[in-house]
Amino acid sequence: MLTGRGIEWRDQAVRWWDYWLKNRNTGIMDEPPISIYMRQCTRPTPSCKTFQDFGGQSRRGLLATPANTTLYLQDAHLLSTEVAKPARINSVTFRPSA
């Protein structure tokens, strides 16, 4: 088993859902809004027991001035700030006798 700081996100997700869906004070809203975890590249070897990583939390977040941006789903599952053009829909005719 590899060791390092690591992060287990599922327990944090349960705390968030408990707060919003079950009205439980889990303390999740008292924590910084953004947590960052990055694992550095480690070449795979059979003897690898640890990996390098770093992480932290920020009360300001990653952006000094956050902005809302609307993204629209485009063809090929892409997102864009431009409104999507109507897509051509393929259809199949159902013939129960065939």
Trace the largest sheet across and list its strands.
1-2
Mean pLDDT: 75
Q: Provide a count of the helices.
A: 1
The low-confidence parts are none
Q: How is the biggest beta sheet arranged?
A: 2 strands, antiparallel
Helix-and-strand structural type:
alpha+beta
Distance between the termini: 57 Å
According to DSSP, the number of beta strands is 4
Radius of gyration, in Å, reads 23 Å
Secondary structure layout plus pairing:
Layout lengths: L8 H14 L11 E6 L13 E6 L13 E2 L5 E2 L18
Antiparallel strand pairs: 1-2, 3-4
Task: Report on the architecture of this protein.
By secondary structure, this protein is α+β, with helices and mostly antiparallel strands. Helix content is 14%, strand content 16%. The chain has a domain at 1-43 and 53-64. It has one helix and four strands, in the order H-E-E-E-E. Strand 3 and strand 4 (79-80) form a beta hairpin. The chain starts with 8 loop residues before the first helix and ends in an 18-residue tail after the last strand.
List keywords for this structure.
98 residues; 14% helix
In short:
With 98 residues, this protein is α+β, with helices and mostly antiparallel strands. Helix content is 14%, strand content 16%. The chain has a domain at 1-43 and 53-64.
